[in-house]
Automatic annotation (TrEMBL):
Entries under InterPro entries matching the protein: KARI_N, NAD(P)-bd_dom_sf
Name the record gives this protein: KARI N-terminal Rossmann domain-containing protein
Domain of life, source organism: Eukaryota
KARI N-terminal Rossmann domain span: 70-126
A Pfam entry, by short name: KARI_N
Annotated coiled-coil segments of the chain: none
Length: 126
């Protein structure tokens, strides 16, 4: 029980610890990876550091460029299950081919309450 109290108190202390952010130079920002770029914290773990949120985008509908073709991409939060059921209420999804990934995606759609037909080649195991 004492170990639980000490670990809880150390977590609270690490959350309250000041987070020392170093300045990110433009060159470093251009070559930054998806890690915590500008954080030189040794006191608090990276998931408590506010620098982690500096380079992340916002959630929601986005337009992404895939090899010159712009596509609108939606996140799960934009399509709750009730909205998904309402949108596809009179439709049946048909997945043809795509190997094991198509089958997996079809099963996922079926598990979410959608009508799905998965088409594969005759005598195919996928």
């Amino acid at each position: 029980m004492a170990s639980l109290a000490s670990s809880a108190s150390s977590r609270v202390a690490s959350r309250r610890a000041p987070c020392a952010l170093s300045k990110v130079t433009p060159k470093a920002a251009q070559t930054a990876s998806y890690s915590v770029p500008g954080c030189s914290c040794t006191v608090c773990p990276a998931f408590h550091c506010p620098a982690r949120f500096l380079l992340q985008g916002t959630r929601g509908v986005k337009t992404l460029d895939f090899a010159g073709t712009e596509e609108v991409v939606y996140e799960r939060s934009d399509w709750p299950l009730a909205k998904l059921h309402d949108y596809f209420k009179s439709d049946t999804l048909a997945l043809i081919g795509y190997g094991s990934q198509g089958r997996g995606q079809g099963l996922n759609a079926r598990d979410n309450g959608l009508d799905v037909i998965v088409g594969v080649r005759k005598d195919d195991e996928s």
